[in-house]
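Example S7 (structure tokens).
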């Protein structure tokens, strides 16, 4: 369809403007004027009706109806009022009492006649009556007013139409016609007619400038045409020469591509280009390489299809790096895992050629994709060998150190935990290294199961494991982690151990307890040491606090002194005789450990030894010394029994039967002359193991007593299950037996229970004659305490026994 001329477009615009103006003047303006005049007239009538209503109310209240006669003179002075009336309302009916003009007969006018008036009705009321006022104006008056207003508008419209016509004619002759002529000239110049003559018009200055410009354009086009013809000739000569060079280059390029294909095939590499308009990769490489993705040679693959093959864990980082490569031109070198077969991933190195900032971003992006799976996995294996523990599969000290420094650098805060297996050396020594390794592997499995993957777990050596947690956990969360570990390792039934595995865990925080690894580890180690002191044979957990280290150092120094004392034979056994009132003699003695010349309380020495394998050496020393003492007794004391205290650790991890048989044989002493004392805690921890050990001890004649009975966890059920010979009543009940009814009743109950079970009783801590008498009345015939004798070395014991006995032979 041909475009319309300027004259046509201008004519349409002028016509539309005229139509709009006519519609405005003939339709909109008259309607609005009529509406405005009508509203003004109604407003005037309402004002008149309001004034008339006030006058009527006044006349009625003054009871001077003669005033109503003045309505005619009031109305005749206003040209807008055509009719008016005053009505009174009585009994629901209205009656006309005055009208204007007089005798117009308002009550007789029909609805059609009233339609010729604009009517306003206002009610009024007084204290005695009510009514309404009616005022109207003939609609003919309104129409006359409208006509008077509209005549000037129509005159204005005629003048406006003339102005529009003059503007249109002036534009057409002065502007449009010269422009159309210039357009025809420009069209001929554009078609190549450069020989035409152009008249320079002088109608007005603008047209003259336009005509002169067209002449100049014609001359320039003629010069450019001649120059282009010369350039075209030169270009044809150049193209012919370059074509030959290009054919040579194509041959060399083909050869280069063949070499590139051979290199790509040998290195398992793909070259890719990326069309950022279509979001597609184009791969080039060996067919075997492409087949890893199910692609054909020269295949085009959509970006979303490649992303679907990326491992979910590395997909987000790849999208981030690739986006930065495309948009910012940053370097692209990213290891990615791509799915080659369902569920199977291989490692690739994705590289991209950086696109300089400011270049056209619509160009193709280029890069390579190199199969690095075998190399990556080899490097990963090398890294794991350097950073992991071969036995447990956890990290090693190197990885632990790196994790700590990374946590300090990244988070600035964290928690370091040290955890080890209680009495692990005893497990190794008594059960063998294979069992020890099995325990370590099981413990590592529980650590990896219970500790979140975000934390670093490492075996630091032996049975000690370290855990780096960042950011730091609060005390409640740390306690929860410990309980999970404790529960998990305690329920393992696949370790081949009679005693449940227990752990000790210490924790320290950084930066609160230091910022370097050595300081924080020392704090955690101190906390773990504190946990071992509180373990009571089970698992324990402790948090480091200032001042804790001083006690650890003190205990550590004490352990070293104990070890030196054992080596130098500084420890001794002293003996406290046990009195039998039925036979009036001392039938047995209790061996008590002593350290002459050292002020350390002996219970502190024992507790410290129990924190390590020293307790086994101390226990062996006690049994050996007891048998040596029995072997050295004179013949008249051949029936004397010696009782020794056995630690729970020694009971569980040392083969007591083998140890007793060893020293009884070396000293030629019957093992039945040895009585061992164990605490309630010993058999509460593992009653089945306790029963097994006690049966073996009883088989070689060794008697067993429960020490400190009633102060721990004992129950009638445990006494019924275990083969016990003696119960030693704790001194706490003996001391209060004269003053505390409850202590008296407890001892009385123990007497009855022992009689029922066939178990003997020994009262400890008897210090007064009154206590002795009460115990004898309760039939507790064996008593031990300062009332009878204090602990004494063996040389004094023999003299004491001879002195206190009624005959050279000790009563049995």
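Recovered sequence:
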């Amino acid at each position: 369809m041909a475009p319309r001329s300027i004259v046509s477009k201008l004519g349409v615009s002028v016509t539309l403007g005229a139509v709009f103006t006519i519609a405005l003047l003939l339709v909109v303006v008259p309607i609005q004027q009529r509406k405005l005049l009508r509203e003004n007239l109604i407003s005037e009538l309402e004002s008149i009706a309001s004034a008339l209503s006030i006058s009527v109310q006044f006349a009625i209240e003054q009871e001077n109806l003669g005033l109503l006669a003045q309505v005619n003179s009031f109305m005749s002075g206003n040209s807008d009022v055509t009719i008016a009336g005053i009505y009174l309302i009585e009994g629901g009916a209205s009656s006309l009492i005055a009208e204007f003009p007089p005798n117009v007969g308002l009550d007789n006018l029909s609805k059609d006649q009233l339609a010729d008036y604009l009517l306003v009705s206002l009610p009024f009321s007084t204290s005695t009556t009510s009514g309404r006022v009616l005022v109207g104006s003939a609609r003919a008056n309104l129409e006359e007013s409208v006509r008077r207003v509209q005549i000037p508008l129509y005159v204005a419209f005629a003048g406006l139409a003339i102005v529009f016509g003059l503007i249109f004619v002036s534009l057409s002759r002065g502007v449009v016609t010269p422009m159309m002529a210039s357009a025809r000239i420009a069209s001929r110049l554009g078609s190549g007619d450069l020989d035409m003559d152009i008249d320079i018009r002088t109608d007005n200055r603008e047209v003259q400038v336009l005509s002169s410009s067209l002449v100049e354009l014609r001359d320039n086009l003629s010069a450019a045409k001649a120059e282009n013809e010369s350039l075209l000739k030169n270009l044809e000569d150049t193209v012919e020469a370059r074509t030959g060079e290009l054919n040579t280059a194509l041959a060399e390029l083909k050869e280069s591509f063949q070499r590139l294909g051979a290199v790509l095939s040998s290195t398992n590499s793909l070259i890719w280009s990326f069309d950022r308009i279509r979001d597609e990769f184009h791969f080039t490489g060996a067919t075997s390489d492409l087949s890893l993705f199910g692609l054909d040679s020269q295949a085009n693959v959509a970006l979303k299809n490649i992303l679907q093959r990326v491992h979910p864990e590395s997909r987000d980082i790849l999208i981030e790096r690739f986006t930065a490569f495309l948009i910012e031109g940053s370097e692209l070198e990213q290891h990615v895992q791509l799915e080659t077969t369902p569920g199977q991933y291989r490692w690739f190195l994705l590289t991209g050629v950086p696109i300089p900032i400011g270049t056209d971003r619509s160009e193709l992006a280029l890069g390579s994709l190199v199969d690095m799976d075998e190399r990556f996995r080899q490097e990963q294996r090398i890294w794991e060998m350097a950073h992991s523990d071969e036995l447990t599969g956890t990290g090693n000290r190197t990885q632990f150190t790196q994790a700590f420094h990374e946590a300090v650098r990244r988070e600035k805060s964290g928690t370091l935990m040290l955890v080890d297996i209680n009495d692990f050396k005893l497990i190794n020594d008594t059960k063998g290294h294979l069992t020890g390794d099995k325990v370590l592997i099981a413990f590592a499995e529980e650590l990896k199961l219970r500790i979140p993957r975000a934390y670093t777990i490492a075996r630091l050596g032996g049975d000690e494991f370290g855990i780096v947690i960042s950011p730091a956990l609060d005390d409640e969360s740390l306690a929860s982690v410990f309980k999970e570990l404790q529960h998990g390792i305690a329920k393992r039934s696949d370790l081949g151990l009679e005693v449940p595995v227990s752990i000790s865990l210490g924790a320290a925080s950084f930066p609160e307890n230091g910022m370097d690894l050595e300081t924080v580890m020392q704090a955690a180690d101190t906390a773990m040491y504190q946990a071992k002191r509180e373990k009571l044979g089970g698992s324990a957990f402790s948090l480091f606090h200032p001042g804790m280290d001083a006690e650890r150092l003190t205990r550590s120094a004490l352990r070293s002194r104990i070890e030196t004392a054992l080596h130098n034979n500084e420890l001794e056994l002293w003996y406290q005789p046990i009195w039998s009132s039925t036979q009036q003699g001392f039938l047995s003695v209790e061996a008590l450990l002593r350290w002459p010349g050292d002020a350390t309380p002996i219970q502190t020495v024992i507790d410290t030894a129990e924190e390590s394998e020293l307790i086994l050496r101390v226990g062996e020393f006690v049994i050996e010394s007891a048998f040596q003492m029995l072997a050295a007794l004179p013949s008249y004391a051949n029936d004397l029994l010696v009782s020794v205290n056995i630690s729970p650790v020694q009971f569980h991890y040392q083969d007591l039967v083998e140890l007793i048989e060893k020293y009884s044989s070396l000293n030629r002493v019957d093992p039945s002359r040895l009585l061992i004392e164990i605490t309630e805690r010993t058999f509460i921890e593992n009653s089945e193991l306790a029963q097994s050990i006690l049966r073996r001890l009883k088989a070689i004649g060794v008697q067993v007593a429960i020490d400190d009975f009633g102060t721990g966890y004992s129950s009638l059920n445990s006494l019924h299950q275990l083969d016990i010979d003696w119960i030693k009543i704790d001194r706490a009940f003996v001391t209060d037996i004269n003053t505390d009814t409850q202590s008296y009743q407890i001892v009385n109950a123990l007497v009855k229970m022992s009689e029922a079970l066939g178990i003997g009783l020994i009262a400890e801590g008897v210090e007064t004659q009154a206590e002795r008498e009460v115990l004898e009345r309760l039939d507790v015939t064996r008593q031990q305490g300062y009332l009878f004798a204090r602990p004494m070395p063996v040389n004094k014991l023999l003299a004491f026994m001879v002195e206190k006995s009624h005959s050279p032979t000790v009563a049995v």
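Notes on this example. DSSP finds 26 helices and 23 strands in the chain.
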